[in-house]
Amino acid sequence: MQGPFSLSRSTLEAWEHAISSPRFGRYVRESKGNRQLAVRLYQWNSRIGQSLYWPLQTLEIVARNGISRAIADKFGSNWHLESGFHTMLAPRPRSTLEDAVRRQKQQRCIANPSADSVIADISFGFWSTVVTGHYHVPLGWAKRLPIAFPYLPGNATREMVSHRLDGARDLRNRISHHEPLLGMRLT
């Protein structure tokens, strides 16, 4: 737990200078110029981000494992090494996957790393990308959505899942980059 933070004028000025006026400005505006309240709001923002880390981490793990199951249903358990899967990917996700496979080969010194090791090495952006409309037909999401997410309500669509994953990824990135969560619907 963080100890008491002195909010003397000189401390506030030094703190604001250190984190930058533009970054702190959003909190100052929100607190109508009250810098002490702005610091408390900044701390609140950090605590909210911390409280969301576990659910976001769980969501990311569940999503990547489920999406991997769906990809494996089409390309086999070694989907991460299958050229057919690599070729259907757009350049950026293909590069992300190839980099992850390469890192695993170098780190583990094995010719064919397991899908599990590669899955954990790939960013959330990759996983949310392969659920977008671009991959609806090539991955057959109409058939594979229940494989990836078996507990979805029956009326859930790929579009809904994609939208929610994008929102979660955006929130995770905002938290990771210490951006303000002020005004966001966090439900």
Element-by-element helix/strand order: HHHHHHHHH
- Total helical segments: 9
- Unreliable residue runs: none
Radius of gyration of CA atoms, rounded to a whole number:
21 Å
Characterize the quaternary organization of these chains. Answer: single chain
Structural class: mainly alpha
Distance N to C terminus: 26 Å
Question: How helix-rich are the residues, as a percent range?
Answer: 55-70%
Cα shape: elongated
Largest sheet descriptor: none
What percent strand? Answer: under 5%
Number of strands: 0
Mean pLDDT: 92
Describe this structure in words.
It is a single chain. The protein has nine helices and no strands. It is mostly helical and 187 residues long. Helix 5 packs across helix 6. The longest helix is centred in the first third of the chain and has 41 residues, at 35-75.
Outline of this structure?
This protein is an all-alpha fold and 187 residues long.
Secondary-structure blueprint:
Elements: H1 9-19, H2 21-30, H3 35-75, H4 83-88, H5 91-108, H6 115-121, H7 124-129, H8 141-148, H9 158-176
Helix pairs in contact: 2-3, 3-8, 3-9, 5-6
